[in-house]
Amino acid sequence: MTVLVVGGGFIGSPVVRQLVDRGESVVCLDRDAGAIPDVDGVEAVEADITDREAVAAAVEAADPDRIVHLAYMLAAEMERHPTRAMQVDCVGVDNVFNVAAEAGIERVVFASSSAVYGRPGNYEGTVSEDATIPAAFTEFPTYLYAATKQLNEYQARNYTAHTDLDVVCVRPSLVFGPGRGSGATKWASSFITDPARGETGHLPLRPDERLGMVYYRDVARLFVELALADAVAHDAYNTGGHVVSVREAAELVADLFGADVTWDDDADPLSLVADLSGERARAEFDYDLTPLEDALRDHGDRVT
Q: Residues 120-137, buried b or exposed e (16+ Cβ, 10 A)?
């Protein structure tokens, strides 16, 4: 099977490597060819997803069976550059979906986010994909990231309903792993990377805040499972995550690497739902998460 991976960055890189490890043919498209992982046999294509003709040319040349779409602007950058954000995270996504539909590609798997669920106070207990999701406009009136992710899911359902293209999304929880150098939640990785290198780590959150932590390689694995599956039963899948408090996460990292990890007692609440069910992916694909301590160790090994 040939898979076109759009976006070769933080999640795209392990997706590419895992696909190659499973014997698939991989083409990776990114607007920066230098960001594409240097893996034997992987064809690199430099293109911007806001350019529909470039996307169409790349798809025609690659002739993929499936597409994994991971090319987005992150939340902090979106707030600084809202016009570009709309071009990339809305029009660019539509370009990929539209070209895929016209090319007769069977399935696109794309990255949504746990941000689509809105604020934690909307729910009690573990939250599944079947939860009633409030509109981003009422939850986060000025938060483009959540709004565009909800729009992307609407776009996906529209293409699935009106074309032969099957569009499926992954809703990752709070992702950590080496290589995450930017974004509003880059601290989810730096609070591990810094102690692994003997420096003090910091979580800009209150100690009782709850986190739903998921390792980047586990996130990549769910994208790969969905891309390669003969059929999928649903249009959205949570990764789920290890639910821990900030205090527990800080103490675990400090114990593992022998360095201090601090937090902020006066921080504003984190508006992300921590306790998301991964049961749908587990039941359908036998998908499970790497034990948290093992994932933290692996992260540390990769940055030292």
A: beebeebbebebebeebe
At position 94, the amino acid (one-letter code) is: D
CB-based contact 175:223 (threshold 8 Å): no
Distances (CA, A) of 239 to 41, 55, 82, 129, 295: 29, 28, 28, 10, 15
Q: Are 112 and 266 in contact (CB under 8 A)?
A: no
Q: Which stretch of DSSP H or E encloses residue 169?
A: strand 166-171
**Burial 156-166, CB ≥16 within 10 A → b, else e:** beebbeeeebb
Is the separation of the CB atoms in 114 and 272 below 8 Å? yes
pLDDT score for 142: 63
Q: Is 65 exposed, middle or buried (0-12, 13-18, 19+ CB in 10 A)?
A: middle
Distances (CA, A) of 288 to 1, 123, 210: 24, 23, 20
Burial class (CB in 10 A: 0-12, 13-18, 19+), 57: middle
Spans in the chain with pLDDT lower than 50: none
Domains of the chain in start order, with CATH, are: 2-174+217-240+272-289 (3.40.50.720)
> In the chain, which residue ranges form alpha helices assigned H by DSSP?
12-21, 52-62, 75-80, 82-86, 93-103, 136-139, 144-162, 187-196, 216-228, 246-257, 279-285, 292-302
User: SS3 sequence, 254-299?
Assistant: HHHHCCCEEECCCCCCCCCCCCECCHHHHHHHCCCCCCHHHHHHHH
Cα separation values, 57 from 94, 176, 222, 227, Å: 15, 34, 28, 21
pLDDT at position 141? 67
Task: Give the Å distances, CA to CA, from 12 to 44, 79, 245, 275, 301.
Answer: 13, 23, 28, 25, 20
DSSP 101: H
Check: CB of residue 72 under 8 Å from CB of residue 111.
yes
